[in-house]
Amino acid sequence: MKGAISEEEALVEHIRSLRMEARTTRPSRL
């Protein structure tokens, strides 16, 4: 099913974006 793959990909992208944002916003926090 493409739906599951799309959902998983979206989740991974979301997490990656969050991590990148957090790192750029507060590098000292990590």
Radius of gyration: 12 Å
Order of helices and strands: H
Low-confidence regions: none
Strand content: under 5%
Shape: rod-shaped
Q: What distance separates the N and C termini?
A: 36 Å
Largest sheet: none
Task: Tell me the helix content.
Answer: over 70%
Structural class: mainly alpha
**Mean of residue pLDDT?**
79
The overall strand count is 0
Indicate how many domains the architecture comprises: 1
Separate helix tally: 1
Question: How does this structure look, described?
Answer:
This protein has about 30 residues and is mostly helical. The protein has one domain. It is about 80% helix and about 0% strand. The chain contains 1 helix and no strands. The chain has one helix at about 1-25. The longest helix has 24 residues, at about 1-25. It is rod-shaped, with a radius of gyration of 12 Å. The model has no long low-confidence stretch (mean pLDDT about 80).
Quick recap of the structure?
The protein has one helix and no strands. The protein is mainly alpha-helical and 30 residues long.
Write the layout of secondary structure elements.
Layout: H1 2-25
Q: Characteristics of this structure?
A:
single chain; 30 residues; mainly alpha
